[in-house]
Each structure stands twice: as C-alpha cells, then as structure tokens.
Design a protein that fits this description.
Number of domains: 1
CATH class: Mainly Alpha
Structural class: mainly alpha
Helix content: over 70%
Shape: elongated
Length: about 120
C-alpha cells in the first residue's frame, strides 16, 4: 500500500485542490496572505500524511507527527473562516470546505488512535 491509497490522503488532496480552485477568485491583495496561507496549509496536510506514512515503522513518531497534519488541517478552518467573513466565499462553499476538513480530521484521528492498522510496528 502506498500513501496515495490512504483515504485520509485522498480526502486531504481533494480539499487542497478545492481550496486552490476557490482561492483563484480571491482579491489580488490576498495573494500572499489568505490565498497563499490556505493553499500552503491544505497542501501541508497531504505532504505530512505522506511523510508520516513512510516513517510509520516508528509508532511514536508516526502518532506525534500525524498530530502536525491535524494541526495544519485546523489551520485550514481558520483561513476558510476568514474567507467567509471577508465575503470571498459563499456560505454553501464555506460549509462544504469545513465538512471536508472535519472528515479529514476524523480520518487522521483514526490513524492516530489505530497506528497498527497502518503498519506502525516497532519491530523491524
């Protein structure tokens, strides 16, 4: 199994691509702040899941570092809160992005609490 087969990765990737597409319509003055930060944090979730999965042999590391992915996922929610409050995205778009983010959070949490299901095993 590869990290791209993980449902958490697939859902996080879709969310990152949705944020990328939606943020194209944000005002120019948001290019390096809201657009850039939203894109960066959403892509970081994917990258961290991939990196942690490759190091899953070390359960403590796997669990500890997946919490970083969860933290980046929470950051996505903050940026989308700002995007909605600034009226850059409609309520239905905002609700969809948050629902996707909560799903990613649930899946990452499952990985954290069940590392053995993902090959985290201290023995070589």
């Amino acid at each position: 199994m590869d990290f791209t087969d993980l449902l958490a990765y697939q859902k996080a990737y879709k969310l990152a691509m949705d944020i990328f597409e939606i943020s194209k319509s944000f005002p120019k003055e948001e290019t390096y702040s809201l657009s850039g930060q939203g894109r960066r944090s959403s892509r970081s979730v994917c990258a961290q899941i991939a990196e942690r999965y490759r190091k899953r042999r070390y359960p403590a590391y796997f669990i500890s570092k997946l919490t970083d992915a969860d933290g980046e996922n929470a950051e996505i929610q903050v940026w989308m809160n700002f995007a909605h409050s600034c009226r850059y995205i409609e309520k239905n778009v905002y609700d969809d992005l948050l629902a996707q983010s909560y799903e990613v959070r649930r899946l990452i949490g499952h990985m954290i609490y069940n590392p053995q299901q993902f090959g985290a095993n201290p023995s070589p």
